[in-house]
Amino acid sequence: MALYHNQPMAHAQEPTAAPIEHRFNPYSDNGGSILAIAGTDFSVIAGDTRQSEGYNIQTRYARKVWQLTDKAVLATNGFAADGNNFVKRVKQRLEWYEHAHHKPMGLKSIARMIQTMLYGKRFFPYYVYNILGGIEEDGSGAVYSFDPVGSYEREACRAAGAAQSLIQPFLDNQIYFKNQQPEPGSQPFIPGNLPLATVLSLVVDSFTSATERHIEVGDGMEIYIVMARDRTTDDLLGEGKLQKGMEIEELGTLGEGQGERTFLVRQALKRD
Amino acid sequence: MMSQHPATWGQPTPANSSFNQFNTFPLPQTQRGQSSHAHHGPVGHTQQPLVTGTSVLGLKYDGGVMIAADNLASYGSLARFRDIQRLHPLGQHTLLGVAGDMSDFQWLKKELDALLREEDALALTDSHPSLSPKNIYELLSNLFYARRSKMNPVWNAVLVGGWDKVKKESFLAYVDLLGTTYTAPTLATGFGAHLAQPLLREAYEAKAGIDGNGPLLTKEEAEKVLEDCMKVLFYRDARSLNKYQIATITSEGVDISDSKSADTYWKFAEGLRGYGAQTQ
């Protein structure tokens, strides 16, 4: 009878007896960084254009920021294949919505849809950090940030990706005024109120600094600026408003056009 | 399970019968009350490469694209098949250069050739536009991503080179088993990404500049760079072979060279001390 009982030793040997399993890893990390900052009547969404894997630069130009509607821009960061396919799906859902409702989906609805789509793959997640920026229905600039499985919140600013840990503290200080005190007797700080010119230079400084200190950030930068309807563009298009080396183009409206305008600013970053 | 034997047909098989009525292996483990043709247990997938090809290089030049790959299919460290073509033309203006698992490559060839035959048939009767390099690349990207999402990857890294007849410009892009995609004027897979890509970029940027707005390499220059790269890879990549082909894709179509070898130099080895057997 004792023959049929497991020997204690046999149990101890089990791990060594099992074959070493090589499991296919369906994920990769393609580096890069993204960030978005909301203003009162505009939103800025930016990302670098380097795509890398380990120490290899795969390409110096791969898109991470995507115009979704006339008032929504989405930035994706993490595993590039998931990112591209996620954006493709989001765009498809937006098209279906427009066919069904004869109007483009509003920003807060896009945000909730993205959370549903991400959570829908909770047990085989899109390995992607998303930041959605744009103009809310009330005309205010907005930024929504997501984790890979769909937790999201509306914020004044957010950085994500390889250089998140370098950029976010800088934004906390400059946008949320963390560790700053107003001068005695002056107005208290209100986050999300900065002028566009200031926000743009913060974005540029964030990426040039991240490029200096993070190997996965560099090559180029794409900054999308979404402006609320009837907002002046003098602080963007005026003579000498952009820094040297910046190129700007206006992206035409995607739908009927309700007065929101989207601009794309490109700037080179260091390639080393 | 129902008995299939002519004498007892229609009767239930004994509860614990392990007799395999169809001589399939392994025995299907059916639970009573469940549909007998449902899938049983986890699906087993291929999942490591067996016979593999090493680096593929790609380079845009003035008037087209060049893609290079050697003729070796390795079985682990064994140089198993030494006359394998890893460049595969698809239609008039597209070519794949494939690294990774060679049986997955053969399957891919079969699938894509079937698709192209179907397209050719449609084009006979209709003003059916032929698949552009971009179309084929999009299809491959979706296929690779779908398969990785099923945890059953197509174990390859592929360079797609082509000539876009409409835009009148060259096309060069990469896709791999994870569904990762990207495009650049110079591309390399595997070891080539470490050893050849820097040389390719240096040569490309020397003329075109970092923004790519300058003149591109001429056909002769491009060929020279690729030959240098294939030589460097042969020197340092233990899974490579000094027998390779270069394909050129232009508006004229696809041209795949005969197999060739780089001139190698080994004299320096005689002066080395400290490795191998020496009397002094």
Keyword list:
heterodimer, A: 272 residues, alpha+beta, Glutamine Phosphoribosylpyrophosphate, subunit 1, domain 1, five-stranded antiparallel sheet, 6 helices, 13 strands, globular, B: 280 residues, eight-stranded antiparallel sheet, flat
CATH class of chain A: Alpha Beta
Q: Say how many strands of chain B there are.
A: 13
What gyration radius of chain A follows from the Cα positions, in whole Å? 23 Å
Q: Any low-confidence stretches of chain B, pLDDT <50, length ≥5?
A: 33-40
Q: If helices are DSSP runs of H or I spanning 4 or more residues, what is the number of helices of chain A?
A: 6
Mean pLDDT reading of chain B: 89
Strand content of chain A: 25-35%
| Coarse structural class of chain B | alpha+beta
Number of helices of chain B: 6
Count of distinct strands of chain A: 13
CATH superfamily of chain A: Aminohydrolase, N-terminal nucleophile (Ntn) domain
In angstroms, what separates the terminal alpha carbons of chain B?
77 Å
Largest sheet of chain B: 8 strands, antiparallel
Helix-strand topology string of chain B? EEEEEEEHHEEEEHHHEEH
Strand content of chain B: 15-25%
Overall number of structural domains of chain A: 1
Helix content of chain B: 25-40%
Distance between the termini of chain A: 72 Å
Strand order of the largest sheet of chain A: 10-1-2-11-13-12
Question: Could you list the spans of chain A in which at least 5 consecutive residues all have pLDDT below 50?
Answer: 6-15
